[in-house]
Every structure is written in structure tokens, then in C-alpha cells.
What does this fold into?
Amino acid sequence: MTKKENRIFAEISIVVPTYNEKENIEILFSEIKKAMPSNIDYEIIVVDDNSPDKTWEKALELMTNTVTVIRRVNIKGLSTAILDGILFSAKKYVIVLDADLQHPPQYIPKLLAEAVEKDADVVIGSRYMKGGGVEGWSKTRLLISKGASLIAKLLLPSTRGLTDPMSGFFLVKKEIVVRNKEKLNPYGYKVLLEILERCKPNKVVEVPYTFKPRLYGKSKLGAKVIVEYIIHVLKLSGWRPFKFIAVGAAGTVVNLVTLLLLKYVASPLYLDYFFIGSAIAIEVSVLFNFALHETWTFKDRLYGTRIRRLALFHLSVFPSAIAQYISAVSLRYGLSINPIIAQLIGILIGFPINYVFSELGIWKKKA
Ligand code: GDD
Ligand code: MN
It folds into this structure.
């Protein structure tokens, strides 16, 4: 049996963003040539940001009719380079490749075959699925990579279920990028996240590969990239954790105001029967928070029935509600602490649990 990548007929643009990659580019081109079977029609698009080492000049020297060199003099940045390359490309599929041979070109036909066979909009080269790997990374870099992936999964539903949404090695159907180009905001380094969230690809598949050590030169990803990454994910999420915090703060006020109201309209519930008043105030704030999450925080994710979400929300706030209830009641009766302060302490303890449950369990992604 021939391998499936030798049986498909397809075309692909290979976009290579470069910044100071002069020593790598020639080897990269020859590796690509070696890797591409004759049944695949391809072009290479180098997008160089006027590298001081004159990568663009070297690329021009190597130019053939399958190679295009874009030299950008006024714009800088990996994401805009990749997007410019994709928009310039002429083929149905586009694949993005580091110039330093960390993404081995031998995998290109595999990713393309997967796209064609499964009619996928996006195919991700994954380091973290079975069969994939990373060579030559320190424990720290691996930890940062995994941590970043976890943050993405918490905040961005489109990344859940994927093993490597942070990959720089991915293939995309050009058409979905063109169709959504106004929505794409090329901030930071992770173009793939941007595409997953904003282009709403119909089908995303992953193919394992081994990320190799860089051939020559050094990585352009520094500490600044980590901060940019977190801002990027927050932006893509529509600043959801901050919305959640705002709702929590408003809910806290509602909780305490309810208690104060009871003090004036039903004072026993505030004093002798505080154990009932406290519970009432908690429930009122739970309902208030739920209404705001439904209409604001998670308004684009109302899947399933409302009653189910309401029940699940109660379940998810249960640990925090119980924590605040027990602390409020025991502080009140045990230490005679002011009911308002007792109530407040419990609220603060329960907040993070409430958030994680809401993200992952209630307003989750479309089934
Ligand atoms: N045009 C252009 N402009 N190219 C750039 C720029 C830029 O500002 N910054 C970096 N590049 C090029 C590099 O020359 C290289 O070909 C590629 O983009 C990736 O940059 P690296 O510096 O090699 O990044 P890395 O290897 O540390 O990170 C890789 O892995 C990450 C996943 O862990 C990249 O593939 C990232 O995109 C990926 O997220
Ligand atoms: Mn690299």
C-alpha cells in the first residue's frame, strides 16, 4: 500500500516567517524540496521583516518560480507576517513553518493529506499527542508551554479537546482566513489561537510531530512574549475573567444589601435567626449572579436548557456557598462577629471555585 500522502493530489502554500534566519533558509528550502512528493503542487512564501542579517537577500538569491519573497520594511511582528503570507498565498491550503527547521518539512504532506481526506479547515502539528514530542527543551520551557496551554483551555472553548493549540506548526484552508480577515487581530505570537477562536473552523484535526531543536540562530520568543500571550488570551476571551470578577463584586453587594434589608424589614432574620437570613442573602445573590452571567459574561454560550444551567450553577456555587454559610454562621454565633463581615469572608473564599466550575461545567462550549 502506498502512503496516503502519495496518493492525494493537492496544492499548498508554505508560509515561512523569517527574522534573522539567513543560515537556515537554504537548508530549509532543500528540505522542503526533498519532502514534497511530485503529486503535491506547492509554493513557498518567505515573509521577512527586513532582517538585519539580510535573510531576504539570501532568500532572493534562492528564488525560483515556486518561491516568493516578501520583504516588509515598515511592519514587524510574527503574527502580521504570517497573516500577510496567508493572504498573499495562491493555493487552497496554507501551512506555516518556522524557518529554523524546528517544524520538519517531512510532515507537510502528512498534514495536507489529513486536511484533504477529512476535509478539515485546520490541521495542527501536535507535540503533545501520542506519537509527537519535543527535542531539546528544558523542563522550564516545557512547563511554560503546558501552563500556557492550560490557560488557553480554561478561557477559550475552541481549544478544549485539542492537545496542542499553541502550536506554531499548522495548516489552514486559506478561504476561512480570507472570509474572516476583518475579525483577525494579529496580536502576539499565537496566530493559531486567533484562527481557532475567530474563524470558527468547522473541523480541526491534529497530527503528531516531533519539534526539533533550532538549527542555527536563536529564538525570538522572550519574556515579553509571555505577558503578551496572557493579554492575547484575555482579549480573545472577551476579558471574561474580569467580567466574572465584576459580577462577583456586584453579587457581593447584593448579598450584603439583602442582609441589611432584612435587618430593617425582618430584624429577627438578621439577629436571632441569622442562620436563615444568611442563607436567604446567599440565595438572592446566587440568582442575581446567574442572571448576569446569562445576559453578559457567557451570553454567547447558552447551550442546553436554562433550568439545567441554573441547577448546575447552584451545584457549582454549592462549595463556596456552604463555605460562606458555615463561616458566617460560626463567626456570628461563635465569636459574635458582625454579620456583614462574617458574610463577606465566606464570599471571598468561594470565588475561584465558582469561576472554574462556571467556565468548564456550565457555560461550556457547544456540544
Ligand atoms: N517576519 C517575521 N517577523 N518573522 C519572525 C518574527 C517577526 O517579528 N519573529 C519571529 N519570526 C520568525 C522566526 O525567524 C522563525 O522562523 C519563526 O518566526 C518562529 O520564531 P522562533 O524564534 O523560532 O520561535 P520559537 O521556535 O521560539 O517558537 C516556536 O514555537 C512556538 C510554540 O512553542 C514558534 O513556532 C511559535 O510560533 C510557537 O508558538
Ligand atoms: Mn523556532
Strands lie at 10-18, 40-48, 67-71, 93-96, 122-126, 133-134, 170-173, 204-208, 210-211. Residues 6 and 38 are 8 Å apart (CA to CA).
